[in-house]
Each structure stands twice: as C-alpha cells, then as structure tokens.
Prior knowledge:
By secondary structure, the protein is mostly helical. It is 71% helix and 0% strand. The chain has one domain.
Amino acid sequence: MNKTQIIASLSNISNQLDNNTLYKEANILTNVMKKLAQEDTNTFNIRSNQDENYPEMIMQHLFEDKLWPMIPRQFEREDHPIHKFSGSDKIRWVLKQMRDLLSKVQIDEEYVEPKQLRNIVNVYRDFLKDFINSEFIGRKANEITTERLNEFLMLLDKAEQAINQNNAEDFWESLP
C-alpha cells in the first residue's frame, strides 16, 4: 500500500467516524493524514517546482496556511457542551468540509476553488454570530476571529482577481 492509498483509507475512516459523531477520533486521523502527506516531501513545494501552476499554488496556500489554522478543533469533541445547542451543526459542517477538502487536495491533488473557501468561511461566520455571547466563545475571541475571517475573504478576493487577470505569478510573489 503506497502513501496515497494509506491517506485515502485514513480519509474514509475519518469520514465514517465523523458520520458516527466520533469527532475527536476523526480529527486525530485528519491530523495524521496531514502529517503523513507532508512527511519526507512537501507535495505543495514539489507541485510548485514542477509546473508552477500559480493559481493552484495560491489557492492551496490560502486553504492550508491561512484558513486551516483559523478553524477550531476543540468543537470536534462529541462531548463538547456546545453541541447541546442549535447552531452547532454549522461548526460540524465546517469541520467536515475542511477535512474533505484537505483530503481532496492532498490525495487527489484537486484544485481548491474560491467558492469552496467562501462557503466554509460564511458558514463559520454564521456559527460565530450564533454564539457571540456564549460561554464557549468569548466575545473578544469571537470579534478577533471574525476580523481574521473578513481579512481572509479580502485576500481571497484579491487572489481571485489576480488569477482572473492573469497576474497570479505576481500575486504569488507578493505573498508573505
């Protein structure tokens, strides 16, 4: 079994765990998938050196390096008290979409579409609005996360504009 097959198997198991509300276990497997995909070689750098597909590189960077770290993993625990309230299905949806997209990018080498990232961010922002004054997410943390998500959407808009205007390489070079 090669590395790609192992990652695909882990992804299937992770989705089954998620469907059975075993969110903590699904998250653990997702983290293993991510580490395994980055082990020995960084597929992101290999692809960028091979074909310099700047639009793909930009979208993958925005997904893996910008959006992924903003999504909270503590809500994946099936016993987290937030799941007793309506609205928690939104964060479950966000977490599942992130795992599925990560799998597609790292296993199938699919291109991340701006629309996919926008949908995830918009549902996550709705979730934050629902829980703005909750005991689970402090108001200040909520405001900071919302601001970071808004900044991400602005960066995503700039990236999409650069890609559509065939300026993806310049945009890529301008990223920190």
